From TrEMBL:
Belongs to the transferase hexapeptide repeat family. The active site is at residue 126. It comes from the Bacteria. One of its GO terms (molecular function) is acyltransferase activity. Acetyl-CoA binds at residue 135. It comes from Chitinophaga tropicalis. The lineage of its organism: Bacteria, Pseudomonadati, Bacteroidota, Chitinophagia, Chitinophagales. This is Acetyltransferase. Substrate binds at residues 7-9, 62. InterPro entries: AcTrfase_PglD-like, Hexapep, Hexapep_transf_CS, PglD_N, Trans_hexapeptide_repeat, Trimer_LpxA-like_sf. Keywords: Acyltransferase, Repeat, Transferase.
């Protein structure tokens, strides 16, 4: 298995994989000055075909758009990383490339898309739909029946009450309390959360 992105986020994923008793052969990164991360070799820039056939990858890059761009540029096989101290319902689907940090809870009948980040201690309650390339930051709390559209970033400690639909490529500020639906690309902050501008 290989990681793409030798960043702080990459370090956290490396430790999850260690906790799972799986091994990482190395990391790819476009910065030639990066030679190692947490004792693992940084091999260099990822070039199509310059890795073993059937190798599995995780894109360890926090930026949602950059993760999506990588999946469009490279034809790779992906795996997931799920910390053993995460509590994931057996009735929940988790898509390829997704990473789930320590202390995360996902409750019954929720669906987690591809290349999603469920960061430390966030909770996703029953019947939620989390689309591809979403990042739910540490300690964010999604009540039941919440949907989050592709590429949206939910900030640290944000709360989304039950039944809310958050659009695609939106940003929910740290600590926001979201009481009603959020349109595509909106950036919302505060309690109650209000739109301050839009992502381009
Ligand atoms: C492991 C990890 O590290 S995971 C990463 C977790 N990271 C996060 O949760 C970060 C989430 N990001 C934020 O909350 C950011 O502040 C954003 C994206 C909402 C806004 O960022 P920017 O576009 O740079 O906004 P900017 O800092 O210019 O602030 C604009 C206004 O909104 C206010 N504001 C910004 N963020 C928030 C917030 N979270 N809550 C309340 N008000 C906020 C600012 O005070 C400012 O108000 P003013 O115009 O009255 O002075």
């Amino acid at each position: 298995m290989y990681l793409i992105g030798a960043s702080g986020h990459g370090k956290v994923i490396l430790e999850i994989i260690e906790e799972e008793n799986r091994t990482v052969a190395g990391l790819f990164d476009s910065n030639p000055e990066k030679k190692e991360l947490s004792g693992y070799p940084v091999i260099g820039n990822l070039q199509q075909g310059e890795y073993p056939q059937n190798a599995r990858f995780i894109i360890s890059i926090g930026n949602n758009k950059t993760r999506k761009d990588h999946t469009e540029r490279f034809d790779l096989l992906y795996t997931t990383a799920v910390h053993p101290k995460a509590a994931i319902s057996r009735r929940c689907d988790v898509g390829e490339g997704t990473v789930i940090m320590a202390g995360v809870s996902v409750n019954s009948d929720s669906s987690i898309g591809k290349h999603v980040i469920l960061n430390t201690n966030c909770s996703v309650d029953h019947d939620c739909i989390i689309e591809d390339f979403v990042h739910i930051s540490p300690n964010a709390c999604l009540a039941g029946n919440v949907t989050v559209g592709e590429g949206t970033h939910i900030g640290a400690g944000a709360v989304i009450i039950q039944g809310v639909n958050v659009g695609r490529w939106a940003t929910i500020g740290a600590g926001a309390v979201v009481l009603k639906d959020v349109e595509d690309h909106a950036i919302v902050v505060g309690n109650p959360a209000k739109v301050i501008r839009h992502n381009h």
